[in-house]
Each structure stands twice: as C-alpha cells, then as structure tokens.
Write a structure and sequence with these properties.
CATH topology: TIM Barrel
Shape: globular
Oligomer: single chain
Order of helices and strands: EHEHEHEHHEHEHEEEEEEHHHH
Bound molecules: iron/sulfur cluster
Helix content: 25-40%
Structural class: alpha/beta
Distance between the termini: 27 Å
Strand content: 15-25%
CATH architecture: Alpha-Beta Barrel
Number of domains: 1
Number of helices: 11
CATH class: Alpha Beta
Length: 335
C-alpha cells in the first residue's frame, strides 16, 4: 500500500534529475553570472549510476509511484541516457515515463529515446518571439532550433507532447497568445507557468509574476476557453480547453493558486538525495545507504519513513519570510 505523508498525500510521481548541467542559461533558473565557467558542477563519480537510479526507481514504484519524469539541468546532456530509459521502461507499474528538455538536442536523440521506451516529452519554449526567446535562454539559441526539436519528437511518437512556458511580466507576457495560436489545433499542449521563487539565484519578485487568472483571461480573449477536469488527483496543471475544439492548454499556478494539498511528488537529485518539495532547503542522502549495501527492504523502509514524516506545503505558506530561506536550485533538482 502506498505510504501517506502527514497531510494524507500518497506517493505517485518521481522526478529524477540526472544532471545539474545545462546548455542554456535561463536567468529565471540558471543565471550565467552565477553558473559561469568557474561554477563547480557535480563530478561524474558523485552522480548516481543508471543502475542505482533504476534500483531506487523500482523501490519507489513498489511504494506507489506510477509516473517517472527525467529532468536536470538538461537531461539530454547526460551520456547514453537511453540506457537509463531502457531500465526504467522495463519497470512494471510505470504508467507514464516522460522527460523534460529544452529541446535543443531532440533532433539528435528523439528516435533513440523513443526506441528505448520513453513515452513522451515536455519541451521548454518560453516564447515564439525569436528575440525574446534568445534573451530568455541567454545563450543565443533561436526558436527555429527548438521547433525542429519538437518536430523530431513528434515524428518519433513522443506524444502527447507538452510545451512549458514560464511567464514573466515585462519579459514574455506579451507573446503568450502567439504561442497558444501556434500550437492551437496541433495536439501539442502548452502549459503556462507562473514565475516561481525556486532557488535563491533568479532575482524573483512577486511583481514579476503574471497570475494564472490573467494568463487565462489573456488567451481567452483571443481563443475562447472553458475549464476541464484534472486527468488525475494531484495533477500539477489546471486544464483549459479551446471552445472551438482546438485542443487544450494548462496553467501551473504555484504562486497565486497553490496546489500543495494534492502534491504527490518526490524528487531525486543527481547525486542521490531525496527532496520532498521543490522549495526544500535540504534532502535525505540515499546514495550512502545504497553504496553501503543496504537491502531493498531496508531502503523501502527508509523511504516509507521519510515520506511518512513529510509535511511540505511551501507554496501555501509562501511569505516575505519564507522567500528568505535557503532553497535548492531549479537547475539542480529540475521542476
Ligand atoms: S510547494 Fe512543495 S509541497 Fe507544494 S506543490 Fe510544490 S513541491 Fe509540492
């Protein structure tokens, strides 16, 4: 039976960050001033091996996890990632095996990922305006390169494909409708994400947040929307469908409409720490017991204990005081 945490939430999703490295420097996640050439990324020998990740994932699945998402940094930078996907795809009980990527390397890897057993992908694309997008990735990558990556993923059958766009006031909020229009009728689901105070390096201010209600109003004026029910309890995005049948969008509203009450997500860091909240300041080391020879049963009991004591609900408690607390970086733990 899946363990419950202190708020009665069951384990359902496992997010696995396989690297803290990225080939983008999005200021809202990995500002280049801080993550420059001198930044010390996690060294290879400190990373969990694919066998260790797969073993932990198998134990998590035994505790109720059905959805596994690979993240980073940029997960496609980790060598031979298809080997890990092959191991995870074999795990009975994994109903949804997905990956979040910035899309730049999809033309190179999409068919391999699909052949290894990946079900679908989520691609980050914050704007279709080339100038805005280049500023938002801060490494000069253009929109066309990501659209080519999306086409490669669609051609490889990695669907339903979702596109994530972080919305920042005065940065890309004037380009949301273009993004919605572009994918309207294509089957691709765009999810608009409120700018979050993840980590402590992105200069987050509440004034820069465009509330979910405003995002929906803005798109509804151009492409009329109506609300949709969640696919499953605890689903992160609130769903809206186009009244004309052109598909749906999602809105992720961690700041203005927190959803901690249904949060069923555990996160595993590249070097094997378990985090029970995206806004946590510390994790629980699983690599040491793994490498010390603990049995599956011992690890299962430890995870059950850790989840059982969980009472995270940062977004519900967010305040001027909480935003001063130390928090792990998005580029380290993934979304
Ligand atoms: S703030 Fe933490 S507890 Fe709340 S939804 Fe996000 S990850 Fe879950």
């Amino acid at each position: 039976m899946a363990p419950k945490d202190k708020m009665g939430r069951r384990l359902h999703d496992l997010r696995i960050s396989v690297t803290d490295r990225c080939n983008f420097r999005c200021p809202y996640c990995m500002p280049k001033e801080l993550f420059g050439p001198a930044f010390e990324f996690i060294q290879r020998q400190q990373l969990l091996t694919y066998e260790e990740i797969a073993r932990l994932a198998r134990i998590f699945v035994g505790l109720g996890v059905e959805k596994v998402r690979l993240t980073g940094g940029e997960p496609l930078l980790r060598r031979d990632l298809s080997d890990l996907i092959r191991l995870l795809a074999k795990l009975p009980g994994v109903r949804d095996l997905t990956l979040t990527t910035n899309g730049l390397l999809l033309p190179k890897f999409a068919t391999h990922l699909a052949a290894a057993g990946l079900h679908r992908v989520t691609v980050s694309l914050d704007s279709l305006d080339d100038g805005v997008f280049r500023r938002m990735n801060d490494v000069g990558v253009g929109v066309e390169e990501i659209l080519t990556g999306i086409d490669a993923a669609l051609a490889a059958g990695l669907t339903p494909l979702k596109v994530n766009a972080v919305v920042q006031r005065g940065v890309n909020d004037h380009t949301l409708v273009d993004l919605a229009r572009h994918f309207h009728g294509s089957g691709v689901i765009v999810r608009f994400i409120e700018f979050m105070d993840v980590g402590t390096t992105n200069g987050w201010r509440l004034d820069d947040v465009v509330p979910a209600s405003e995002i929906v109003e803005c798109i509804d004026r151009a492409l009329p929307l109506e609300p949709l029910r969640a696919n499953y309890p605890g689903e992160v995005a609130r769903r809206w469908r186009y009244r004309d049948g052109g598909g749906e969008i999602g809105v992720i509203s961690s700041v203005t409409q927190p959803f901690c009450g249904g949060c069923t997500r555990a996160r595993l860091s590249p070097e094997g720490k378990l985090f029970t909240c995206l806004f946590a300041s510390a994790g629980h080391d699983l690599r040491a017991p793994l490498r010390a020879g603990d049995s599956d049963e011992e690890l299962r009991q430890q995870l059950t204990r850790l989840w059982g004591t969980r009472d995270d609900r940062y977004s519900e408690l967010r305040s001027a005081q909480t935003t001063r607390q130390p928090r792990i970086e998005m580029s380290y733990i993934g979304g």
